[in-house]
Amino acid sequence: MAFLEASVLLGILGGLCALYLLALGGPKFRLDDAYIVLNNAQALRAPDTSFPETPALHGSTSLLHTLAAALVAPVFGMELGLMVLAWGAIGLNGLGILQLTRQAELPRYIGVAVVACALTTGDLVQVYLNGLETGLAMAVLTWLIVLHRGGGRALPFLAAAAPFVRPELALLSALVLAGWCLRGERHAEAPPLLRAGLAFSSVFIGLLLLQYWASGSLLPTTGDAKKYFFITKETGFFESSAIGATQVFLFFLLMLPQSLFLLGLVRRRSRLYVLFAAVFLGYYMVFQPLTLHQNFYRYMYLLLPLCFLGAIELASSKNKGIRAFSTMMILVVLVLNVKGAAVSVPAGMETVRAKYETLSDAADWIDRVLEPSETVLIHDVGYVSFATDQRFFDIVGLKTPAAIEINRQFSYHGGEEGRGRALAEMAELSGARTILVSEGWNRGFRLVDHLAAEGWTPTPHPAGNPAGLEAYILAPPGG
Fold first, then answer.
1. Which of 185, 388, 435, 439 maximizes the CB count within 10 A of its CB?
2. With 0-12 CB in 10 A as exposed, 13-18 as middle and 19+ as buried, what is 196?
3. Taking the alpha carbons of 6, 7, 11, 14 in that order, is the dihedral positive or negative?
4. For residue range 2-19, what is the model confidence (pLDDT) as tens digits?
5. Of 42, 34, 46, 36, nearest in space to 394 by CA
């Protein structure tokens, strides 16, 4: 590792983190899901009053990201700790890209330019600093490649841990670990297969058991929760593929200059990564095409490190023309990134401020108006469960396991009628007589209208509404 470059990188990121927090007025996040992470991390330390019957990490896609949030909380506090983790993930990814440039023996100025290009690509505020595991997953992918190419003995340990950062990384873990073991066999090293197998198994089984203990499931349930809630009509293979292909095209069009770097992955030693990217995209295009564009394409960001691996491959080519072209493209992308960030960062910060005010107002309204023991039907459960002691029933199912099965039975491919039936079942099961929905969700999903169609009588809450939300008292059929 180039100590000087690494020290400068971490120093710059630390300064930027401090400036960001100062400008924003403290740690705030654009996505309500970030506060699900905080609530889950908090539930590891104390009982969750909002979801007392739910395992602490039900609703966490990333076991290790949530555990990290819980571990740093005693030092920084919950919200600041999560922000520090987000900036730390950016730094970890940058160090990985830097190490790849050193492995390729690029000139120092080219290596620094590639790192700067990688860390300025994309939406800093709304993706890298979203409070979720996005940045950490990118960093883990980068370091899997670093260890795979450098023969690091830590590879089996990281490969075992990677699926507990993002489940999609399980495929890449298997590919790079298999390649590493086969390479060791060819070079007649001390039995790498047995050694790697024991290291991998001990970490993987340990984390799997921890996942089951903390969440009640061997696999994250967040994918099922979103799928069964949002998908309400049948889509065939070709329709799903067309929708997914369109989203993939739009993302790479958005990242067009960076996407050209993928041409560098034609080398034989990069084929494993191309296979991973192809399977990753194929799965989402066919099975979860509507997920790809959500939250500013954050799922697609997992592939961005491959773009910069391609840039490194091009910059280390034996062909002078290719090297010159790649250098020019790296500098062009860097200029475009900085120019774009000058607009997107201030705009993103204003969006975060506005979102945080809405979330805070909702929590204040709940504390002021409702009895804590009263169950409330709600969809965005993150901030309100983190900031209040109110009882909630999550209609999506990220925090209420029963909602997943209800949505699977009625909403999933059940159309508008099925959604109404699912909501009625949830209201009946939970005993909730209050529903709190955002204006956008109620307009898009017609949640209150569906309950009315099932015989429930929604009445605007006499205490009014929190900012951006709608509150209703629910009277059951015949009640």
1. 435
2. buried
3. positive
4. 788 889 999 999 999 999
5. 36
